[in-house]
Amino acid sequence: AASFEFQDVTDIAINLPQNHILVLQRSWPPLTLWNTNGTFLMSWDTKEIGYPHSITLNGSDPSVATVWITDFAGALLAGNSYGHCVKQFSYYGEFIKSIGKCGKYTNGSSINPIQFYKVTDI
Length: 122
Prior knowledge:
By secondary structure, this protein is mainly β. The protein contains no helices and 8 strands.
């Protein structure tokens, strides 16, 4: 059996109706999907997440459920497309949208455009 080494896990989401556990970490891959017996199912291959902090699952049917991830990256870690924002993905890792202006020079609080500062949870 193949082994998997977790690094800097920040949060998990449990989808009980599907018997799935989504594990979010600050290393590659950023998200892995497991069944509740501990069998690896898949991982996300996305460069859309800079420094993930928390995960929220919206729905349980993988065909329509979405996953929200807070991208906490501070100025030294953030790039142009991540940090200080919340991102929505399909259940299988396709980027849908972000809320808040992402990027290393966006830290602060504003309404127009929406800007978060080290957003940590949804």
